[in-house]
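Possible regression after last week's pipeline update?

I re-ran a chain I had predicted before the update to compare outputs. Posting the input and the new output here so someone can diff against the archived version. Not blocking, just want to make sure nothing changed silently.
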Amino acid sequence: MIEYRSPAEIEQMRPAGRFVASVLTALEQKAAVGVNLLDLDALAHQMIRDAGATSCYIDYHPSFGASPFGKVLCTSVNDAVLHGLPHDYVLADGDLLSVDFAASLNGWVSDSALSVVVGTARPEDLTLIETTQVALAAAIEAAQPGARLGDISFAIARVATKAGYKINTDFGGHGVGRTMHGDPHVPNNGRRGRGLPLKPGLVIAIEPWFLQGTDKIVTDPDGWTLRSRDGSRGAHSEHTIALTADGPLVLTAR
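New output (post-update):
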């Protein structure tokens, strides 16, 4: 069921968005050559405790997950792109790291993700990351009252296709509210002018993610981490936005 939030409820959601943004900013600053993924997870866990927030991930156990997630971050490195389960891995020079984080504060959830390169960056990795960012910006711009959900999806796909990336639609954006995942599903490919009419009060996470060489993914033995089938690298960008009468409001802006 799709839920629409009142202007007062959207105001109540702002602190959660600011908190999620602050955690991602801290993680981006912390991520460096020699840093363990478990240290990043520990930092986020401490910030959750300090803020009186609640993790959306630690007890998360959907049908596609092998077990409860058990960590508070998704940390996906190089050919991993989504749902990366933090483990004892030390970041190396040139690693492409995607971090996804969702938390609940005062009963409201926000969800956001970013990708960075630690140390020496490959030009093709920077291009990939920038493409996800451009696609996210285009999708947010398309999220206007009176438009359609397909306009958001089309905006993402147009950027990806122009850059030469294939698009996987198994995982995408989603509704956000009292829980992390709700209706509607927001695919990263769609037809302009089709789908759900966009109305003020809709709160969604938009999350373009692309792989350099394929649209096919495989699951690690940990039952969570999703990697490219061909070993090519991936990147992921995400914001939670609220549709208002004046247009999209980015709740997780950093």
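Follow-up from reviewer: compared with the archived run. The helical segments are 7-30, 37-51, 123-142, 149-163. Marking as no regression found.
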